[in-house]
Amino acid sequence: MAADDDFLIFRPDDVDLSRSPLRNGVDEPTHVLGAFNPGFARLPGGNLLLMVRVAEALRDPVDGDSARAIRWTKQGYVLDRHPVAGIDMDDPRQFALKDRNPRLLGLTSLSWLLPVELSKDASKIVKVHYDKAIQPSAGFLDYGVEDARISLVGGSWWMTVCGVSAERHCTAMYHSVNGLDYKLLGVVLDHQNKDMILFEGKPGGKYMALTRPLGEVYFAYPDDSPWLGGPSINMAQSPDGLHWKPLDTPGIRARKGTSSTQRIGGGSQPVLTPEGWMLIYHGVEKQGAVGVYRSFWALLDKDDPSKILRLEDETPLLEANPALTDPIAHQLYLPTPVVFTTGVADAGDHYIVASGEADLACRITRISKERFL
């Protein structure tokens, strides 16, 4: 793959924190922990949009005997204190309250979304739309708005996000008529679900989405089953994009004998090709606290997407590329390789694929369509 076909397009230092929404309440120095996992869509004029997740953290999260977390309120952002003696901080992205069952977490950063407009071929940044940034605006988002996924359905843009709060860990929906200005429609999945992504079309006349429900308990398959239990990709249908009914049949599951034995989840929005619905998803191999994230792909039946026509879960489509992050290696905080694909756009004879690299920056990769035949 040529260097101009695989590169970082947006990095932490590209964020102007003087224009961050957190300036409404947080006066202490902050830094960008990561500018990554972007929603990806083509705008009406042909340019491309990255909806970048900006994880903004205090430079000094620990103050004296307290760790501090940022929280949104209607009056502005505030800092909550948690006694250091009562928490574990093994993961740089979060801390856990000791002796709590179920486990209770706090974040060392708060995420907001920054629209970054790219040229039609994704080779350069056209404009960073700070005036259209999406920040928490409701109680179910008060610890952050994370991991946007955008799909063009029926002439308008639907964007799911992961809402983080003490109230719930949910999926919220935004909607846009121009791909750039988004309105919050509210909670659509009232449980922890990290990877809800709408299909770019309506199979059978209904909205359809990939989901990945999470929980504290999973059950084992029989020993002779080819499948592994744990987080997997399910599917759901909706008459209006707001009310969702899960399909009864399972979707894409982790398979024994592959490198994705810890969990899998959705990545890009499913797009319709002559062969069926193509989607890129992530698989995680257990290693350390985070795991190794790679991107794979699948092909689903165009009329009944619950039917898997092809599952490329052995040879990765994308893997983390340390050469891309070498120039900003001093900003790395994850010990294991991570690439997290979050969107795809048609570009004629190839696809433009957007990913988060190392939970740090936004990566663009151009992949020939022949790779998917």
TrEMBL record:
Gene3D superfamilies: Glycosyl hydrolase domain, family 43
GO molecular function: glycosyltransferase activity; hydrolase activity
Pfam families: Glyco_hydro_130
Keywords associated with the record: Glycosyltransferase, Hydrolase, Transferase
InterPro entries: Glyco_hydro_beta-prop_sf, Mannoside_phosphorylase
Entry's family note: Belongs to the glycosyl hydrolase 130 family.
Protein name per UniProt: Putative GH43/DUF377 family glycosyl hydrolase
Upper classification of the organism: Bacteria, Pseudomonadati, Pseudomonadota, Alphaproteobacteria, Sphingomonadales
